Task: structure prediction
Amino acid sequence: MEDLYEQGRVRGIGVCNFLPDRLIDLILCSRSAPIVHQIELHPFTQQIPLRKVMAEQGGGVPTAWALLTDGRRGIFDNPVLRRIGQPHSKTPAQMVLRWLTRQRICAIPKSVHEERFHENHNIADFSLDDDDMHDISVMDTGGPLILNVDTPEEATRLHGISYTQ
Result:
């Protein structure tokens, strides 16, 4: 990949789900650091230690996957997100997207519903203040909600998944 990058055949190299120690190892053993690092990142899994390593070591721009928790934990009905969004007439999903963008985290929401697609892009007309940011920050559970890449059981589970088309 580094050869392809240096030849200009790819624009950048990204990684996904690297734990802090593996990310540092990669950076120290590579000619070029990753441009992006795709990680599970949402109000319940904020990845603070990993994001700190990324910022200090040049470990790429955080790119959130499952930024709306795949609908888990009642994210769309969360009372904190509803309260923060109410004065702006915004949804919990819009609160999450604004929270991510304020922190300069790349957020690529997905939806198969046209209405939600437009809603997800309608986040530039309001801002979150420091109290709002704090209220969302305390929602962090300190661990993953969807994928725990740090366990042998999860690696075994993922290895056993088959996809058919």
User: Anything to note?
Assistant: The domain at 2-146 is CATH 3.20.20.100 (TIM Barrel). The chain has a mean pLDDT of 91. Residues 111 and 117 are 6 Å apart (CA to CA). The two ends are 28 Å apart (CA to CA).
